Amino acid sequence: MSPIQPWYKQFWPWFLIVLPLCAVVASLATMKIALDNKDSLVAEEYYKEGKAINMDLRKNKYAKQLGMQFTLDVTDGMLSITQHGGPAYQAALSVELYHPTLADKDIKLMATADASGVYRVTLDEPISGNWEVRLESYDSQWRLHKRLDLKSPSQHWLN
Questions:
Q1: DSSP state of 144
Q2: Which phi and psi angles does 33 have, rounded to 5°?
Q3: Where on the phi/psi map is residue 110: left (φ > 0), alpha (ψ -120 to 50), or beta?
Q4: Which element (helix H / strand E) includes 123?
Q5: CA separation, residue 129 to residues 6, 132, 149, 153 (Å)
Q6: 20 to 30 A from 15, CA-CA: which of 30, 50, 84, 98?
Q7: Quick check: pTM over 0.85?
Q8: pLDDT tens-digit readout, 111-158
Q9: What is the mean predicted confidence (pLDDT) over 66-90?
């Protein structure tokens, strides 16, 4: 008969310790990956944003009552916005372009009209594809919002 070895020199205790230890290490690695790669499409304060949507709807209805209409033209890295309906508007215009999936490509800026009443914005990089376009008055009284396909270089109507 052989002498009994201490537990730390035997195979089975180490085998039983390593299995749960691997699960702990894998779960910590998974948690680090999840924390580093947050989903940018999920709203953290969904209730407040839901209430804000109702305010947006009132602004959209008011813009329709006024008859506000604009055309949006994207050519060679230049965004041109021209008014075609409603009371003449010459104040600054809040222009927001939202990419459907990539939040880091979103564009938010204030545009002012030139002498001919056209709002011109120079873009850092060319844009194409589907975008959510939002135009809002400087005093936040009205807002136009529409999803546009900016692949083609034609004029796009916002009304």
A1: E
A2: -65, -45
A3: beta
A4: none
A5: 69, 10, 5, 11
A6: 30
A7: no
A8: 888 888 888 888 888 787 888 889 998 888 889 888 888 776 666 777
A9: 85
